[in-house]
Write a structure and sequence with these properties.
The complex is a heterodimer. Chain A contains no helices and twelve strands. In chain A, about 0% of the residues lie in helices and about 50% in strands. By secondary structure, chain B is mainly beta. Chain B is built from no helices and eleven strands. Chain B has strands spanning about 5, 10-15, 20-25, 30-35, 45-50, 55, 65-70, 75-80, 85-95, 100-105, 105-110. Chain B is globular, with a radius of gyration of 13 Å. The chains are: A mainly beta, B mainly beta.
């Protein structure tokens, strides 16, 4: 079974501080992509960062970085220098490659950045 | 460059009715996927359309059906609505095997 688990339903962080969101997943496939999506209160999901499973180097996008542990099937998101605009639901997801068409999402973590 | 657009944004139906939701993909995208997001949950895959054919389907009953048109736009139809169908329906488009989905803002369906 393909599953994604986000064990932190809610988190908060002070503005300018660093926060880490956890995600574990389960798949028997060897090739897949991992993603973090952000869903602000306006609802549109936006891609934050993605990681190809065959790449050992952790992906980074400005203030966002991941800690990808393939053996442990762990994919955490670190947000540095948190900003008020980072307040949103964050979803961890993956899709298998090259045959995958379906994305599997976790239940999300609601992040609040406190001024 | 227009992103993914969905209509309507909100709608209210009663049990037993039928609903059609519409989606226009991002320019240059040829694949459309539909997801159901219940309150407080992550999106659940309904199905994906490519070249006007349903390419893959999630664990949803036959009451959920879809269509893709030659211009790549898509419709999601739900028949015999149940209270449990109340959710945010998200359309996402993609191109080839880029491994990235672009989402619309969704259609919020309330079934009374």
């Amino acid at each position: 079974a393909q599953t994604v688990t986000q064990s932190q339903p809610e988190m908060s962080v002070q503005e300018a501080e660093t926060v880490t969101l956890s995600c574990t997943y389960d798949t028997s496939e060897n090739n897949y992509y991992l993603f973090w999506y952000k869903q602000p209160p306006s609802r549109q999901m936006i891609l934050v960062i993605r990681q190809e499973a065959y790449k050992q180097q952790n992906a980074t996008e400005n203030r966002f970085s991941v800690n990808f542990q393939k053996a442990a099937k762990s994919f955490s998101l670190k947000i540095s220098d948190s900003q008020l605009g980072d307040t949103a639901m964050y979803f961890c997801a993956f899709t298998t490659f090259p045959t995958g068409n379906q994305f599997y999402f976790g239940t999300g973590t609601s992040l609040t950045v406190i001024p | 460059d227009a992103g993914v657009t969905q209509s309507p944004t909100h709608l209210i139906k009663t049990r037993g009715q039928q609903v059609t939701l519409r989606c226009s993909p991002k320019s240059g995208h040829d694949t459309v996927s539909w997801y159901q997001q219940a309150l407080g949950q992550g999106p659940q895959f309904i199905f994906q359309y490519y070249e006007e054919e349903e390419r893959q389907r999630g664990n949803f009953p036959d009451r959920f059906s879809g269509h893709q048109f030659p211009n790549y736009s898509s419709e999601l139809n739900v028949n015999a609505l149940l209270l449990g169908d109340s959710a945010l329906y998200l359309c996402a488009s993609s191109r080839g095997e880029t491994g990235e989905l672009f989402f619309g803002e969704g259609s919020r369906l309330t079934v009374l």
